């Protein structure tokens, strides 16, 4: 008599894993975006949010540039606008490497920072005080980006996404340099702003 326990149980076997080598990918860039839950999903969410953020920031930076009076601030923001456009291209590349569709996901935290910037800067006349407000707002936005890239880097390390790490590290370094430049600029502009108030 056939023992029921000898029968093959359909659907209980683990599927044969497809190795990264078979797919022609480097082991480091093996990523499965369709898997829900786990670190993959968190990484994907963060990636979409920074993509949305960088795209929004191109508009925000243009508005800040149009209100900046200091030539140094105007130049620093214009340079960062160009860098931001490059960072978007870099994220496009990253999505492509991971075989994911490049799409953004609105981040309410960043939307709040952008709204706060508008409220602060729009009520101040252009000049030293407004420039000080622009730097304050821009640095908050920079720190959001720095935190986002740092988080993505820690996830990419855990997921062994070597190429992604390289791209993310480059963007993080640029954000840090921009924040440092704005911080240095604020030393002079904040003092000038004291005579505007
Ligand atoms: Fe950026």
UniProtKB/TrEMBL annotation:
Superkingdom per UniProt: Bacteria
InterPro entries cross-referenced by the UniProt entry: DUF892_YciF-like (IPR010287), Ferritin-like (IPR012347), Ferritin-like_SF (IPR009078), YciF (IPR047114)
Gene3D superfamilies for this protein: 1.20.1260.10
Protein name, UniProt field: DUF892 family protein
Organism in which the protein naturally occurs: Marivirga aurantiaca
